Amino acid sequence: MIASAGLATYAWVSFKKVMANMRLDNKIALVTGAGAGIGRAIAEALASEGAHVFVTDQNGEAAAVVAAAIAAKGHRTTAATMDVTRGQDVFAAMRLVEAGPGRLDILVNNAGLNVRADFRHMTDEEWVRLREVNLDGVVRVARDGFGMLRKSGKGSLVNISSIMGQRGLRPLAAYSATKGAVTALTKGLAVEYAPFGIRVNAVAPGYVETALTERVLRNPLMAKALVDRTLLKRFGTAEEIARAVLFFASDESSYVTGAELLVDGGMAAAL
Ligand SMILES: NC(=O)c1ccc[n+]([C@@H]2O[C@H](COP(=O)([O-])OP(=O)(O)OC[C@H]3O[C@@H](n4cnc5c(N)ncnc54)[C@H](O)[C@@H]3O)[C@@H](O)[C@H]2O)c1
Hints:
The chain is built from eleven helices and seven strands.
């Protein structure tokens, strides 16, 4: 009995020690497109460091599944349906945050999609949809999230751009245009939000295996060509992208704003 009580005390002390070392203890975070892929990994990484994460996605069921998995590990989390192209969804999510913790310390603009179309044959509808999610959605969330980030006094806004915002690859010209705009927006917002104590940075992933890239990466010829162009000779994982987001979200990057971190296995360096 005594031994097990001692063990329990040790376990509790160790648990408290680990909790005390968590980088995002007492922080409040919101991630868009967190129902799958990179967004899910980001939400889980932020929660594992102690943040209360608002898991949002256009697919409310997917958001709820991710939040349940986070809660099952003993972390605080809230799921919300939020399509970044719908102003009323973004407004409602921000009011949910306001009515709850009342501030946001970390806001991650992750929701995005890709339309793989030969540029010459892309329809207006395809272009508008791509722009509405990848750029207009980022603008809307960054704008409407300002009030809650400002309340933090030490806010961190992280945008997920892409290596394709800096490079061209067929057939991704339109996607590149939206992601290049996110890179430029990140720098502009760093300037506008700095007086309010909000840092703004971007993470630019290379190729990561998710639903977004499934079709390309399952094609052995295309997959080989891409791996050959990557210095580390493999694709990245969503968790590796999430670790870069953790850096920008935490005080470890307290003197960094307006920056973009390529997490691409060296692909851009080699192109
Ligand atoms: N996978 C890669 O190789 C890669 C590379 C560079 C950049 N990125 C970027 O990373 C981000 C995440 O990509 P992923 O690979 O995880 O994609 P994914 O398709 O696996 O997941 C995207 C998630 O975003 C959600 N989403 C899509 N449209 C939305 C909207 N309008 N509102 C809210 N949620 C929406 C989806 O429901 C899904 O849960 C995107 O911005 C993407 O452009 C991905």
